[in-house]
Amino acid sequence: MRVFVYGSELSAATAAAALSWVGHHVHWLLHSAQPWEALEQAGWLRREPTLFDQLQHSVAEGNLMLVHEVDSLRRCDIAWLSLSPTQRDDAAALVSDPAMHTNPELLLVNNSTFPVGETERLQELMQSTQCSVSLPDMLEEGRAWTTFTRPSHWLLGCDDAASERLVRELLRAFNRRSEIFQVMPRRAAELAKLAINGMLATRISYMNEIAGLADTLSVDVEYVRQGMGADSRIGFEYLYPGCGFGGPNFSRDLMRLADVQFSSGRASALLEQVMDINEQKKETLFRKLWSHFGGQLAGKTVAIWGAAFKPGTARIDQAPVLTLLEALWAQGVHVRLHDPAAVPALEDAVGSRDDLATFSDDPYLACEGADALMLVTEWKTYWNPDWPRLSKLLNAKLVLDGRNIYEPSFVASCGLTYRGIGRRADPTA
Q1: Strand runs labelled E in 151-195
Q2: Whole domain around residue 99: which residue ranges?
Q3: Using an 8 Å Cβ cutoff, are 58 and 21 in contact?
Q4: Which residues pair with 358 in a beta bridge?
Q5: Distance CA 263, CA 244 (A)
């Protein structure tokens, strides 16, 4: 098929790479806010496994063409939109363009993170013979290529058999292991995507609340997590307490769901609590540091491992580290931070500061002269550190584990003081 992809989001890059990889002829128009010259230098794109290499390969093979005008839309069968929530007007401008109306059988696939009902609104701007479907973005950052090419499911918002058949053919190469399409009305698909992330966020925040209670009651939350997860009605997914979640898609989907509820006259106290809990948890490591030193933090030096909002990405959008840094700097703490991918994004966000030193190669450099270590992002390189070396490097021998990836008793046996999220080496301490 001939596919026109519009957008500079991760979802657009992944669709362009994957669809051209399986033989479709893809014309990719990047959004003016981030043309190819800027996108190809983006750390988040280069850090995605397989994706950047496949884009380059598809361009070299000729199945992927980077275009600068809408005109190539005239020769396409599919218009695939992958835009951000702030680019709704650009989507409307595209579907209103004369090039869009040349082919009366052109199908619009809305893969953007737009409000519920937006696919129907775009349909109203198209010719009466043209159709639109909602195919919400289900990608996971750090695993974008895998989640597109080996998906567990697609939410397909579709109201006619012909459009469904065309989408199935478009994605047939990725639907061979099992039936992955869940077909439903367009609005239902858009709301289902938001509801999924709302549920996942609720599980995380609930588990963080339980971790806080476990701390108060001198209970190791790991026992509680195991007990909850063993119940088949609950399971273990998204049941890990931590120092808060972030990320562009997860956070804005929650805000979008809250906006949908508010505009419908059904404001959600639950979602407000979920978001409030998450913001509070972003400061939990700071509060543990404050407690350990009795509030005397001025002049202290803290090492931080991890800035990205999750492992496998170079992005720091709504990342817990941003809130944590503000709290530390407000108390006169000097920070030495290591992240294997997100240092450039962090430096762009906070600028050059005398109270911040950054490292991207050796994580132990961040610990030199530090009083304590905070684990914020659970990159695999941090999972099995040289504990005797850390014990010598950290002046106060304090480890604050924001992702509960370490075994408290083992860390303590190495001569360090351990504090996690609802976990500690000595529950009575």
Answers
A1: 154-157, 181-184
A2: 2-184
A3: yes
A4: 337
A5: 27
